[in-house]
What does this fold into?
Amino acid sequence: MTPSETAEEQATEATRPKQTSVNLTLRAWLRVLCRESFGLVALLLLIVGILGPISTVFLWAFTERWRYPSLLPTEWGIKYWAQTLSRADIGSALPLSIMLSLVVTGLSALICLPAAYAFARMRFPGRQLLLLSFLVTNAFPRFGLYVSIAIVFFRLDLVGTVPGVILIQLINTLLLMIWIPTSAFQGVDRALEEAALDVGASRLRVFVQITLPMVLPALGAALLLTFVSTFYEAQGALLIGLPNVRTMPVLMYSLINNQVIVQYGAVISLVLWLPSFLLLAFVQRFLRGNAVTAGLGV
Amino acid sequence: MKKNFTRRGQNLSTLLGYLPGYLLVAPPVLLMLLLIFYPAAQSIVRTLFVANEGDGLRSFSLLRYTDFFNNRILLWNLWFTVWVTLLTVAGLFVLCMPLALYLRFSDSRIAAAVQVLSLFPLFVPGIILAFALIRFLGPHGTLDTLLQTIGFTSFRTPYLRPSGIIFALIWEGLPFTILVLTAGLRQVDNALIESARDVGAGDWQIFTRILLPLMQRSVLIAFCLNFIGVFGSYTIPYLLGPAAPQMMGVSMQQTYSEYQDKLGAETQAVITFLCCALIGVLYVRTVTRQRIGERN
Amino acid sequence: MATLDLINLTKQFGEVVAVNSINLNVGDGEFLCILGPSGCGKSTALRMVGGFEDPSAGDVRIDGQSVITLPANRRPTAMVFQKYTLWPHMRIYDNIAFGLRLRRLSTGEIDRAVQGALQLVGLPTYGKRYPGQLSGGEQQRVALARALVLEPKILLLDEPFSNLDALLRVRLREELRAIQRRVHITTIFVTHDQEEALSLADRIAVMHKGQVEQVDKASNIYASPRTLFVADFIGAMNLLPAICQAGLLQLGAHHLAAPPSLSAGSSVTIAIRPEDLALVAQSDSAPSDTWAGSVLQLMDLGHYRRAIVDVPTLGQLKVYLSKSVMLNEGDSVQLTPMRYLVYHAHEAPLEMQQQAGEGVMVYR
It folds into this structure.
């Protein structure tokens, strides 16, 4: 990144440019202008293309009546919120979704975090290979894999059961819960741990008081990402869960296809979307680092 | 005698030393083997060995696959999936590469806003996206209304059209692709670009001869993961796409649920594996290869 | 093969003035070092010459012609960067040929030029290798070859050896000097290492906080540093505050002869080189005011010895002694300065010398 270009803009406004600098300022300024006008166009397109659909959902959620071709809802109101939230299927799907996500995240953490520590800090033959094998799961087209799993589950009588849904959602989380914590553990500077050992701390204390605090942000991000992605997981739950286990995303399928009243879908979308907002705030900074892309092999 | 003992003792102790490591990584590895590789292998085996009419014994047969390729509708689905995937991936690169370059070389507030917005779709789950896009792009949706008010009346909604699928999938894939490309760009130090400028290279030459080769890894990863992801997608094509042709994900689900043809669905699954196999191999090779510059 | 002039060159980053209106004239074929601590603006100045920063004000002229409107890729300058200099995805041959290929030269010409450049830096067989296979020193030599192959008018080097180990640095320094002399190219070399500057440069420009404090030959800078900063930065120096009273400079409990032009009451700083502090034997014919002190530390540095002598009211002084001096830590000694510089306000320093007499041992 070149801070000099933007700072240069400010600086050239601060000082009165001399004769020779006038042409120079023009050239540099043109370059920046071209670049930033591209950025501006991109920004506008992104605003329309990305915020457009989202704001549409927001509008619908607070609509009582909206007749085409009016640009905005003809009648505003929150009538549909109470109606939606008191629906029976929501009443059973929402707690179920939350419970499932918690269980899957907890299981995933239990299974993967110790493994991540082992991958990061222990030496054993085949370590590299095993770690990379998790990336291989990316090479399978997702829904095809789900169909294969569904057929195996069918024979094991796991279709339509909660354990079945837990298992299929667990698979999704493996990659994230292995790679992010592994690179987090690897990123801990050994010198810091050795310094603690040097002043007499036990290995356990070093782990709890030195290592753990340093990886906690990354682990927290991984847990949050896992929770949210499990909460939103629609395809596996659809294939395995139906007809008995209906999570919120699965509910959305029928609401989109079979429901005339748009507001139900809009309200549920917003309710479903809330955890995402939390994730957005917490993880956004973290995403700009390299840990997540490292988990994909970049 | 003593030598043998110590040598064996050493081997044993090193092996025991490895044990904690193996024990800790065993759970996820086993889970992965059981729930990913085993079902996939099962599907391949089951679809290749068909029960004979008479004695019910299994024998190797390509019957399932010939049935697939003889089915015009299914073949059309496959072909449809391939070109939707190619168009989506191409669209993603055309949009994301300039954005990634812009984000790499600009520090302004506009760039910061672009970055935040481009990451936004990451936090919108597929289901909600489908719903939002239907309301936005669909007939009598907000885009349609907006265009009407400025006098543009010939809006053809992409809803229930291939263009709808492509738009939605590009929407979905935007943040991931930008993340991967910007990560790759970030690894190219400024000095490498400046030294190219120093010897006289212009912007396009720097892009093609310095940036692209050094970004190769992330470009390939973005390509492979997007290709495989789009090829195997279900939710968006199901909710936004036409009734026919269907993408493979939708076709598989219908075959499995509505036609109750488990074996047929499995066959389709294996075919998608095969179609993505080369790309998958490319992905694994790219990821396992040493990064450029680490050749020592 | 050109002259370079920096005229009132200034660079501002927001509030911070990194380079404050510097003026430098570099002659044809001259090797100029810009020396200074980190943050003094030397790299920024160099980058402005190369075209990687646009000046806030001022001009850069090559052979009398202003070049600041030219972007980096069209200036007749070539830069060797500090690190990440070679493109890792290209072979050495292609790294060097890259700029030549942009200029659409024929394959034969390119080949000859590349081979010539590799010969010049002593790596004739390295063409097929990749940068990752080369050591740090070899990489910088290839970077030098890549810069020189385009026959630029000005060669710019931005601390190219600072990432290498000491021995390698010395060797590459000598090679660079030899190559520069052979090719006779005007060169600007930026460094924070004064030993490097002193051994490489025809002239040195000492920079501090964005300004050039002194431009001169190495020996002159060493002998007559124009400002306190240069005095302290180049070589070791003892700096002592003093007040001018009645023709004498009062430092602590001691006094020295004051320069005649100095007015009474002025506070000054006295700078004495360690080798200019002489040991006085205990005898009656000693000069009027010797400084008594005890040896705190003695370091044997091969061909000379370095002592830290604690003189009451003056503090700890660095003294260089010849090998033959028999001294131990804790011994009492008498010192007297044979030569010292007097710095007053922002004027050029005044030099004072004492005559060596009997009983005075001077380090040579």
Q: What stands out?
A: DSSP finds twelve helices and two strands in chain B. The radius of gyration of chain B is 25 Å. Residues 2-48 of chain B form the longest helix (47 residues).
